[in-house]
């Protein structure tokens, strides 16, 4: 999998680094759909990895910067394993051959994401209501109604290292699958004549609009 640079022209999209190219033809079908999904998975995993790297150079204060990067890394990682418009990665396939601890760590972060960071269900977030009672020397007894609110800390070295490994191993799997699929698609296209290939439609990109927010692509 290579990072290919694109530029916008008056007539469409130009691919950089291929001076002999005349057209970027669109490919369709199940293999093409899977290839697109793998590319999006790789983008999310890359973003997650970059968030983790950024934690190391983020200031200790304010804490919200490091915590935001940490949560974003976890959430974007699990976008690849959740239900959506693209096929989901299967953890048992991605981490096949890895030590059994890999799936234990995966399940831990899955629970952290599902039960704490995205939904508030477990004890990692607690708010305990109480009333501050005075010493009885006043005309009233209750000084203040309050809540003791606390969040369990999950950004620590072991968790950081474990998530980093999960992300990197997943990205290796995705890139390998992408490259294999590219080879298969290339072989299929090469069976066609140059004239047939040249007659195919070019790829097109439509800029999303506000109405697309609630629509599944």
Describe this structure in words.
The chain has 6 helices and 4 strands. The protein starts with 5 loop residues before the first strand and ends in a 19-residue tail after the last helix. By secondary structure, the chain is mostly helical. The chain has helices at residues 30-55, 63-79, 91-94, 101-117, 157-190, 194-198, and strands at 6-8, 13-15, 125-133, 142-151. The strands form 2 sheets. The protein has a two-stranded antiparallel ribbon. The chain has a two-stranded antiparallel sheet with strand order 3-4. Helices cover 47% and strands 12% of the residues. α1 packs antiparallel against α2 (63-79), α1 runs antiparallel to α5 (157-190) and α2 crosses α4.
Short synopsis of the structure:
With 217 residues, the protein is mostly helical. Helices cover 47% and strands 12% of the residues.
Please outline the helices and strands.
Elements: E1 6-8, E2 13-15, H1 30-55, H2 63-79, H3 91-94, H4 101-117, E3 125-133, E4 142-151, H5 157-190, H6 194-198
Largest sheet features: 2 strands, antiparallel
- How large a portion of the residues is in β-strands, by DSSP E? 5-15%
Topology as H/E string?
A: EEHHHHEEHH
Unreliable runs, pLDDT <50, ≥5 residues? none
In DSSP terms (H or I, runs of 4 or more residues), the helix count works out at 6
Global shape: elongated
- What structural class should be given to the helix and strand makeup? mainly alpha
Query: What value does the average pLDDT take?
Result: 92
* Order of neighbouring strands in the sheet with most strands: 1-2
Strand segment tally: 4
Query: What's the N-to-C terminus distance?
Result: 24 Å
Q: From the alpha-carbon coordinates, what is the Rg to the nearest angstrom?
A: 25 Å
